[in-house]
Structure formats: C-alpha cells, structure tokens
Amino acid sequence: MLALVASNPAERESVSEGNGLRITVSQNGPYIVSGGVPLAQQIIDADEEGNSRDWREGQKYDAAPEYKLCRCGNSQNKPFCDDSHLRVGFDGSESDSARVPYAEQAVEYDGPERALTDARQLCVGARFCDPNGTVWRLVERTDDESVRELFDGMVGNCPSGRLISWNRRTATTIEPSRDPSIGVIEDPQLGVSGPLWVTGGIRIQSGTDGYVYESRARMTLCRCGQSANKPFCDGTHAAIGFRDDFWRAA
Question: What is the pTM of this model?
Fold first, then answer.
C-alpha cells in the first residue's frame, strides 16, 4: 500500500494558511470566501459520444476581497448568497463522514508505473474517469507512455479529488498545476449545475466549531443544499436536476 498522505499534515496546513485564502462554512448559511479567490464557471466539455473530455472556462465573476456563495440551493442570485437560507430554514449541518481523512476512505489499484487511489464517497459524477475503457482498466497499462499520459490527464480532471494518480517509483502524486480558484461547475451533457470546484490549497474551515478540513488539491463543495456529505458534494445535484442561471442563456 502506498503512503497515501505524501506530505505531512503540518505541511499541508502551512500551504493553506500561507496563501491567505479561506472558505468558511457558516452554520446553516453560505460559504464565506476570504482573500479575493478567483471565481469562474467551469464547464464540462464532452465529445460527440457524450464522454467528458476537458474543462472550459465560462463566465468570470468579480471576486471581492470577501464574498458569500450560496450553499442552500435557493438563492435567486446564484452562485452568490441572497439570504434565502433564512427564508427556507436551511439545515446545513456538516456530516461526520466529511471529516474522515482521504487515506481512510481510499482503495488502491496498482499498475506497473502508476497506482490509482479511489475514495468513492467523494464522487460527484463528472465522468472524466469513464472514457477509453475507464481509469480502473487503464492503470493496468501504465507501462505504455501514451496510456500513462492519458491516464494522468483523466484522473487529474476529476474535480472532487476522488481519484488520485501516484507515481509508483517515487510514491508521489501526479497533479495538474492549478492556481487557487473556485469553479462554478456546469454540466451540459446532463443538463445540470454542479458543485463548487476548489483548487490550489484553499483552507476550508467550519464556522460551527472551527474544524479545518483536510487540504487536498481538488475538492468539491455542495451548492444544491441536498448532499448527505456536507459540505462536500455527493452528486445529488444530478438526481434532483439542480440548475442555476447558466441555463437561462443556454
């Protein structure tokens, strides 16, 4: 079994503290984003057969030094909060399961040059793992350079960080280089709006008890209000057909 936590918790903590960026999960209210974190739509691009292939940036939003993002799903000004959580009596209780470390959730699949770790509970249904025979089969062929490159790209596009590619020789993760940002996911293939995609080591902290969530390179926060793994997304947005203003112009 690989050392799933490649860097120690203190190192990860210093990264999120050092960049001054923070997302606070307020009690039964919005995400409070501090530090002027860039915010833009991230749209799943599919091929002619409907397979998720890449990300395309859409509308960019003005990122104030501090802003609030809806997490109840009822704002009329999505992705921003308009205090609808007060009107609907939103229960945003954070799940105990969301605090289980990635290493305790993940299952490992070994290949010749890469290993794949998979924490299924984090799946948001973006489907980048499915083309080309699925990443679970491709990992077995990673002694082929072209397959290895394809595999790394597919895994790195998984927004939630459910899937991680590992270099088996060095026991280190293979991650795309992404700056700190928040992406408002849109999924035209399914016709739904997805979660908030957090990249770049932004600190996520509970406003209820101050708990600091484990820092990961890719994380997705629920914004439909219905996830059973709050504050993280569990794919429920697809089941309920969650949509924001993106679909008025589509």
Answer: 0.94
